[in-house]
Structure formats: structure tokens, C-alpha cells
UniProtKB/TrEMBL annotation:
Source organism, top-level taxon: Eukaryota
UniProt keyword annotations, A-Z: Heme, Iron, Lipid biosynthesis, Lipid metabolism, Metal-binding, Signal
The enzyme's E.C. designation: 5.3.99.4
SUPFAM superfamilies: Cytochrome P450
Entry-linked Pfam families: p450
A single Gene Ontology CC term: endoplasmic reticulum membrane
Record-given protein name: Prostacyclin synthase
PANTHER family (UniProt xref): PROSTACYCLIN SYNTHASE, PTHR24306
Length: 371
């Protein structure tokens, strides 16, 4: 027993010594180890990563190194310098971070669903918006396989929730999307053979802008790399920083560029037309310090490790919302209700989860009822 205690104390002493000997070397990013040996900033980072990293950015600038549970993580928040990390497959490795992320994301269990008689859908139903989409799929007689696939994409469900939530709480956005959809359906009814999927046959710049704005506000992925060889990181402003082998590098696009006021005016506010030009074409020119940005929003990652399911997810989200708006009457139970806050512990794992729900009521549209 005494020998065990001695070994534990000895190991703790070694950890403290290793922690205390880490010093910022020449040309390395600012180092912030925190007050607790080994643990560093782990508690604050895990509780609300966005709030913590925003505080570090204000203190140190666009690049800094922090200690998190024994790991030293260099955080880069300058979107103009992201390519130096994203495109490096020699000095940086993604394998371990990818495996950890897959384990966290896909540990998902589908809820059981019971078929509902269609006539009951003609009455008003009261539910939370989050998971309503599952019931609607049963009404549309979509196979259980498709429901499973949609649910398995653990980011697509929350994305649909936020998109619908923003539309319901912003009437001008809802009307703009419905107006665009009405134009599509009017065009198709005049055709002898209307397209099976109107969203694929026509461009939907307003709908796309709403989705992009939704993802800007709620997609909070962290792009992580492990430094496998000492690396010189060359920033867009010409500065160079030394990254140590064994450390980790992290990009957090949610903080910058997505919530950067230099790039997006009033970044906390939902603006459905933020990604539209005045002529209703897609806006893709954004600037920081008078330099055009390659990355002005990054919900899907980038480079060789971009989300392979991006196209499927976008199609699924848009198709689901399109079907809902064209087949159901939906409104909030309380017209003054607000969207629930996000769960701050979910920063870094893809789409943010709502910490609460939005109560809505819905019914099947009458055949003669126009949207």
C-alpha cells in the first residue's frame, strides 16, 4: 500500500516537473499553461470552448499555445493562414484526431417510431421542433432505411432544426424562402413532365443563403492535426512560428472566420440574405484587413479532409425542409418564443445541439391550400 502511494506521488511529481519545465522558445507562439499543473485549461476548455478561445484570442492574438490535460495545443484563428495547416500532410497528421472524432460522432442509437394514421395529421399537433422530422418522414412513407440514414448523420438533424427554427422566428426569412419555393412550383406545374425533385432542377439562392447563414451560426467543428515533425508555420502576414513535434494544432472556424466581426457584420445576428448580392446571386466575396478570404465560413472542413457527406447532407436538409414547407402548416405555439441556447459543451464536435426546444404546432395542408 505504501509502495503504491509512493509510486503515485512520484508519478505526480514527474508530471509537475515536466509541466513546469515547458517554456516558450524563440519563434514559438505565446504560451498559456494555466494555473493548474498538467490539467491547464482543460476544465474551462471543456465547459465552453468558444468562450475560452475567444478570451485567449483577445489576450494573445490569432495564434497561441495552451495546455489542455497534459497536451499542448496551438490554436490558429487567422483564416488567411489556414492553408498552411490544412494542406500539410508531411509535418502534420490527421489520423488520430479523425478516429477520436468518428467515435464521438457515430455512437448514435435510433429511436423507435410507430406509424401514425394520416387522418390524425389533419389535426393540430403540439411537439418540440427537434425530432418532429422523424414523424414527418413516416407520413411521407419514406423507407426506414432513409430515416435511419438521415438520423445517422448526426449533424444533419440539428442543422434542420436550426434552419427551421431560424425561419419560424424570422418571418421575413420564412416569407422569402416560401416565395422562392412558390416560383419553383409555379414553373413546374406549367411543364408537361415536371421534375421529380424541383430543388435539383432549379437554383435556390435564397434557400441556399438561409442554409449558409444557419451553418455559420451553428456549425462549430474543430480541425485538429498532430505535429509529427517540428514545423515552421508561415502566417499570411509574413510571421513565422515554430511548432514542436508532439504538440497539436487546432483551427476553430466558428470563432474566426464565422463569428469574426471584421468579416461578418453583426456576427451574432441571423441575416437570411447575408450570402446574397443585391441581384439575388450568391455572395462569395468577404474580406479581412482588405484581403479577400478563401475561407469565410467552414462548416464542412476543408482540403483533403473535407466532409465526404457534404453533398448528401445539404440535399437531405434542403429536401426535408422543402417537403415540410410544402406539405405542412407549421407555426410556433408562442409567437414570441425564442430559439433555445446552444449546449456549450458541444463546441468542436460539428453541429451545435440545442439546450432546450422550440414548441411548434403543425397539421397537414389541405389539398386546395396554397403555401
Amino acid at each position: 500500500m505504501l509502495w503504491t502511494i509512493f509510486l503515485l506521488l512520484n508519478g505526480l511529481l514527474i508530471l509537475v516537473l515536466l509541466y513546469s519545465t515547458r517554456r516558450r522558445q524563440k519563434n514559438e507562439p505565446p504560451l498559456d499553461k494555466g494555473l493548474i499543473p498538467w490539467l491547464g485549461h482543460a476544465l474551462e476548455f471543456g465547459k465552453d470552448a468558444a468562450k475560452f478561445l475567444a478570451r485567449m484570442k483577445e489576450k494573445h492574438g490569432d495564434i497561441f499555445t495552451v495546455c489542455v490535460a497534459g497536451h499542448y495545443v496551438t490554436v490558429l484563428l487567422d483564416p488567411n493562414s489556414f492553408d498552411a495547416i490544412i494542406n500539410d500532410t508531411v509535418f502534420l497528421d490527421f489520423t488520430r484526431a479523425r478516429n477520436q472524432l468518428l467515435k464521438r460522432i457515430f455512437s448514435l442509437q435510433l429511436p423507435s417510431i410507430k406509424p401514425t394514421a394520416e387522418r390524425k395529421w389533419m389535426e393540430w399537433h403540439f411537439h418540440g421542433l427537434h425530432l418532429t422530422y422523424m414523424q414527418f418522414f413516416m407520413l411521407e412513407d419514406v423507407s426506414a432505411c432513409l430515416v435511419g440514414c438521415f438520423s445517422f448523420q448526426c449533424n444533419a438533424g440539428p442543422a434542420a432544426f436550426w434552419l427551421l427554427g431560424f425561419l419560424l422566428t424570422h418571418p421575413e426569412a420564412m416569407e422569402a424562402v416560401k416565395s422562392e419555393i412558390r416560383c419553383l412550383t409555379l414553373q413546374d406545374t406549367s411543364l408537361q413532365h415536371p421534375p421529380i425533385n424541383p430543388l435539383e432542377a432549379h437554383s435556390t439562392p435564397v434557400f441556399d443563403s438561409v442554409l449558409s447563414e444557419t451553418l455559420r451560426l451553428t456549425a462549430a467543428v474543430m480541425i485538429n492535426r498532430e505535429v509529427v515533425q517540428d514545423k515552421i508555420l508561415r502566417m499570411a502576414n509574413g510571421k513565422e512560428y515554430h511548432l514542436r513535434q508532439g504538440d497539436r494544432v487546432c483551427l476553430f472556424p466558428f470563432l474566426s472566420p464565422q463569428m469574426d466581426p471584421e468579416i461578418h457584420q453583426d456576427p451574432q445576428i441571423f441575416k437570411y440574405d447575408r450570402f446574397l448580392n443585391e441581384d439575388i446571386t450568391v455572395k462569395d466575396k468577404f474580406y479581412k484587413k482588405e484581403k479577400r478570404l478563401k475561407y469565410y465560413t467552414l462548416p464542412w472542413g476543408a482540403g483533403k479532409n473535407i466532409c465526404v457527406g457534404k453533398e448528401f447532407a445539404v440535399t437531405a436538409i434542403k429536401q426535408f425542409v422543402f417537403l415540410l414547407l410544402t406539405h405542412l402548416d407549421m407555426e410556433m405555439c408562442d409567437p414570441e418564443a425564442k430559439l433555445p441556447p446552444v449546449n456549450p459543451s458541444r463546441y468542436g464536435f460539428g453541429m451545435l445541439q440545442p439546450d432546450g426546444d422550440l414548441q411548434v404546432r403543425y397539421r397537414l395542408k389541405m389539398p386546395q391550400h396554397k403555401m
